[in-house]
Design brief:
There is one protein chain. With 226 residues, this protein is an alpha+beta fold. It is built from seven helices and ten strands. 33% of the residues are buried.
């Protein structure tokens, strides 16, 4: 993870700041690492960090939580419900509803095989988690709230691309088209954001960072399929 903290607390929408505080309080209680991913991290990175409009707003909030066992995932979702603000989705175990749709996506030692999780209790629903660990390692520290200060890990564009590529074959044509548009945006705008080193967002900026992460991804894929 890039060891930097950029203050964007004055740019965060209230519903997002509230959800970030909630997930941080619950995961901290159980010592479970989390990071922001998906459209939420795309918004935070481009709209608030480098002032590049993403062109598409979303009320969906996505978190990745690194867990050792399924009981950890249950503790986090139960903890969020206990706050009295969230309701479960009866059909999707990872989804909660409040002012926004909140997706909590587990990865880590529960993956079996590596890069895949099978949702309990029947293990009949699969989700790809290839790229989640790399995305978390390459995330950046962002200050999203003050009094008290809250710093969270936010996925970078290369991390987002990794996760989208890993799930490519699992999507239908509409999803693939959306993801292709997103990948095109991420690649182009990430290069445009070359001035973020001057803004103190990362220690050392280079377009090769994206290529290095992609290389790690493909090495991992080869190991899984060897």
């Amino acid at each position: 993870m890039m060891n930097i903290s950029k203050d964007i607390s004055n740019k965060i929408e209230p519903h997002l700041a509230e959800a970030l505080r909630d997930i941080a309080s619950v995961t901290t209680k159980y010592d479970i690492p989390f990071f922001v991913l998906g459209a939420t991290s795309r918004y935070l990175f481009f709209n608030t960090l480098v002032d590049i409009p993403t062109g598409r707003a979303t009320l969906d909030i996505e978190f990745g939580i690194q867990v050792k066992q399924w009981e950890d995932f249950q503790r986090v979702t139960d903890g969020m419900i206990a706050l009295g603000k969230y309701m479960r989705d009866d059909k999707k175990a990872h989804r909660l509803y409040s002012k926004s749709t909140v997706d909590i996506l587990p990865f880590g030692e529960i993956e079996l095989p590596v890069g895949t999780i099978l949702w309990p209790p029947y293990n009949d629903t699969m989700m790809r988690t290839i790229g989640f660990s790399e995305a978390m390692r390459s995330s950046i520290n962002v200050c999203v709230a003050k009094d008290p200060e809250l710093i969270v890990k936010v996925s970078t564009p290369p991390g987002l691309i990794l996760m989208k590529l890993s799930a490519w074959n699992d999507g239908d044509n509409d999803r693939k088209l959306k993801d292709a548009v997103d990948i095109h945006f991420l690649l182009n705008k990430y290069i445009d954001a070359g001035n973020m080193m001057k803004r103190g967002i990362i220690d050392e900026y280079t377009p090769m960072m994206a290529l290095e992460l992609l290389k790690q991804f493909y090495i991992g894929m080869n190991e899984l399929t060897a």
